[in-house]
Write a structure and sequence with these properties.
Blueprint (H helix, E strand, L loop, with lengths): L2 H17 L3 E4 L3 E5 L5 E6 L15 E5 L5 E3 L2 E4 L4 E5 L6 E8 L3 E10 L8 E7 L4 E5 L5 E5 L2 E6 L13 E6 L3 H14 L13 H15 L4 H4 L17 H6 L12
């Protein structure tokens, strides 16, 4: 084998190894891996190695849907750095680049750029993952709809093709709920670390300030109605698209009140 053939073989081998390797995203508490075909393959809790995905069916991952209802999967996933995830069609003609950030219990993905997806095609973007009821998603802005039901979590960008320059491109967060109190803390961290809309306060909006504001709000409105309680959360966490209940909402109401669902 001459030098040219050797270099060609090594190049093909490197490409094969890249394509056959799972893409892993990790937080301090869990690691999620996507297969070389872009399907959620495993999601392991770091403390005990417990699997958080549904056995044999971890969901569809990322995909596009056209006006004709046909789905096209973004089957090639790769993290080209600690802060970027690329989701691409098999032929490489369409690509969505996500900006990644990691918190103590979560991974946040926000769309940074799009390539090859023409607005006139009216395609919508979607993400699906199936696991235990503890694995959850939340939308990070009003361009994104997300929810969790019966072990299946979904994220939809229904207006993916239609937004103004002032609109965000959309984003979501994936996290594990281990208890109501744990989820409360995760949501508070998201509220601060992801710079979501928050009450106007004096000084910087920090985790400590958020905790303080929650406590003040609880004392002030402990005997008020659910309608008033819903004002606690960022607007996109109060939309009808949510299929689950908010622990923060339940915690702010009196113990005699049934834990409410968002947007109901």
């Amino acid at each position: 084998m001459n030098l040219r053939h050797s270099l060609l073989f090594l190049g093909l081998l490197a490409q094969w190894l890249t394509l056959s390797r799972a893409t892993e995203l990790s937080t301090d508490t869990f690691t999620i891996a996507f297969s070389p075909q872009g399907f959620p393959e495993r999601c392991l809790r770091k403390t005990d190695g417990a699997e958080l995905l549904k056995k044999g069916d971890g969901g569809e991952g990322f995909y596009l849907i056209g006006l004709d209802g046909a789905a096209e999967r973004l089957s090639k996933l790769s993290a080209d750095s600690e802060t970027r995830l690329l989701a691409t069609t098999a032929d490489g003609s369409k690509e969505v680049v996500f900006q990644m950030s990691r918190g103590f219990r979560y991974i946040a993905l926000r769309i940074a750029s799009v390539k090859g997806i023409a607005p006139e095609r009216f395609e919508s973007l979607h993400f699906n993952i199936k696991g235990t009821s503890r694995l959850r998603v939340r939308g990070l802005d009003y361009m994104t709809r997300a929810g969790n039901r019966l072990g299946s979590s979904f994220v939809d960008w229904p207006e993916f093709w239609h937004h103004s320059a002032e609109d965000p491109l959309g984003g979501f967060v994936l996290y594990e709920k281990t208890s109501d109190e744990d989820e409360d803390e995760t949501l508070l961290r998201l509220w601060v670390e992801q710079k979501l809309p928050h009450p106007r306060v004096a000084g910087e909006w920090t985790l400590e300030r958020a905790h303080s504001w929650i406590s003040e709000w609880q004392k002030r409105f402990a005997d008020r109605t659910q309608l008033r309680a819903q004002r606690l959360l960022p607007p996109m966490w109060r939309e009808r698209s949510w299929q689950d209940c908010s622990p923060l909402m339940g915690r702010t109401l009196s113990r005699e009140t049934t834990r409410p669902c968002l947007g109901r």
